[in-house]
């Protein structure tokens, strides 16, 4: 989003309370010795517009999925097509994914998992927390609220887009389901009168239920496969880029395998219950995966947070544990040993009351130490030169000295 100087109001921070060292303003600059903040006036209008667009997409997805406002293309079929004469429901199937369970798992479970992940990021992360000020310096949007709005909003936008794309292709293709002829039960006269056993329309069907016949022509692509693959891939990208703490190397692949396995089971159940052809499921997986990759990689930028890094000469970098809210709330005593390596922290750095002690070597102390070493070296060289000169003078004979 482009921001011009005319559209950005600059105000000076007047609060006497120093902010948390882990909170960094997204837009700030220095003018002399005064710290100024830039107010973002674009966030609320853009957020309102995005909410309206999301509501329009949700309404369109609802009409495409649950109403018959849009007609279905009636593709001509053959009376003797064996691929369309399977049973309406395969009762010998190992399992079947219920519609309520499917919508709950794909529409509610990923936002709940993102919410838990953001709570963990807010509690355990030691990275600077970027805040945004909207319309005034006191109107602040914290990190967790902004990230939840972004990630869950992008997920809903992607799932509505996937649903619209899938149902739009269904209406335009009009491919019959594997049980279409079993449900239609055409009479023999219509099939005999048609040329090459090719019949069109639904007038030759014995079944007069319009809704069932309409649903029987919506096989390509699989709605279960596209929605489940989108939800799974989007969640997998989120967990793969968020679970980077030490000790989560086994948890991350476990969550990815469980999420991907559930999506595969959803598509496999459609094949076992004779609801879709294998081509429908494959194309459904391709559509959902493509949309999820686009939203996760290009729109959400792999769920990474870009913050302004503080200057090391102005702000002393704290320990990672001291920046984490978990270690602020629950103090854990630390013990130091006499022998420490260069990567080991020395001393007690947190007392549970917010007191922080700089860690590592002090730059001023190092500079002073180097200066003293250089001065000592110069003094030692000078003393050595004077000693050599005195020895040379003493070694000169006395007669030459008299001369």
TrEMBL record:
Q: Which residues cross the membrane?
A: 42-64, 101-124, 148-166, 218-239, 251-271, 283-303
| SMART domains hit by this protein | acidPPc
User: What is a single Pfam family found in this protein's UniProt entry?
Assistant: PAP2
Domain of life the protein comes from: Eukaryota
Work out whether the entry's keyword set contains Transmembrane helix.
yes
GO MF entries: phosphatidate phosphatase activity
Q: Which family does it belong to?
A: Belongs to the PA-phosphatase related phosphoesterase family.
- Name of this chain's protein: Phosphatidic acid phosphatase type 2/haloperoxidase domain-containing protein
